[in-house]
Design goal:
Elements lengths: L3 E4 L4 H4 L9 E10 L4 E5 L3 E13 L3 E2 L3 E5 L4 E18 L3 H7 L8 E2 L4 H16 L4 H24 L5 H10 L6 H7 L4 H12 L3 H19 L4 H7 L5 H12 L3 H9 L1
Antiparallel strand pairs: 1-2, 2-7, 3-7, 4-5, 4-6, 4-7, 6-8
Helix pairs in contact: 3-4, 6-7, 8-11, 9-10
Length: 269
């Protein structure tokens, strides 16, 4: 990502403004990508949201690392110095709903919050950049929608950080690859967790263990194949990740309460 800045007006000084006559207003947005260290000091009249993707930024009260968010409120003097190569996304916004939206996102002004690096937020920023370029009759409302989406995603991850981390990568992988052999150790490594921490986080967010979740995905797929195809039970067992037909039938009966063939007949009755 390269350094880029977008304004609704041509002059930056006009974008540094407070407007309490509208619910929400997006003044400017951009990205900073610098190889060399730099220092910034300023005071603005709007809210200033910063999302760090790479590097390190030093403030008087804290240190920002990748995955950190901070919001400076209007009238707050801020100063930060980067260390080495640094990348972050930023947006300035105002309006009479700005304070409540910031609070709803779980963001305490002028304090560091760690939410992790998430592609959903990065994607929202990239779309914001495009809307500033398109600048048609719909762009203004789309920009506000995207800003709200950024704050909503931020709220989700602020809340998740207060609990245990959501094992999203592992869950997504299970949905894509449940037909393949899956091992808890490999899934835990995707989340940079120990197996114990991974099992705990997984059950907190799904209500079941990783193995139970994998079995549910496989049995659900098997039910669909039994009701919609004429494949043999052995072929379906292999399709959903069970090379042993008899083991598959035992698992299926335990979960569904009947054998695979009886389930097939029940669906065609």
């Amino acid at each position: 990502m390269r350094t880029q800045t977008y304004f609704h007006t041509k002059l930056e000084s006009e974008a540094n403004r407070k407007n309490d006559s509208v619910p929400l207003q997006l003044n400017c947005v951009g990205a900073v990508s610098e190889v060399l260290s730099f220092s910034t000091r300023s005071v603005r009249r709007d809210y200033y949201y910063i999302y760090v993707l790479k590097g390190e930024m030093l403030l008087e009260s804290c240190r920002l690392i990748p995955g950190d968010v901070i919001v400076f409120e209007p009238g707050c003097e801020y100063q930060y110095t980067s260390r080495g190569e640094t990348v972050y996304l930023w947006v300035h916004y105002t309006g009479f709903e700005a304070r409540s939206l910031t609070q709803s996102a779980g963001l305490t002004p002028n304090h560091r919050h760690h939410i992790g690096v998430h592609r959903e937020i990065i994607s929202c920023f990239r779309q914001l950049f495009r809307e500033f370029i398109i600048n048609d009759a719909s762009a203004g409302q789309l920009c506000l929608y995207l800003l709200r989406e950024i704050l909503l995603f931020t709220a989700r991850y602020v809340q998740a950080d207060r609990k245990s981390s959501l094992p999203l990568l592992a869950i997504e992988y299970i949905h894509r690859s449940f037909r393949e052999p899956l091992h808890i150790e490999a899934l835990a490594r995707m989340e940079n967790m120990s197996c114990t921490a991974f099992r705990s986080a997984f059950k907190q967010h799904t209500g079941v263990s990783p193995n139970e979740y994998i079995i549910s995905q496989r049995i659900s797929a098997a039910c669909q194949l039994l009701s919609q195809t004429d494949k043999s039970v052995s072929a379906i067992a292999a399709d959903v990740g069970y090379p042993d037909q008899y083991y598959f039938s035992r698992i299926f009966r335990k979960k569904i309460g009947m054998s695979p063939l009886r389930y097939r007949f029940s669906q065609k009755a």
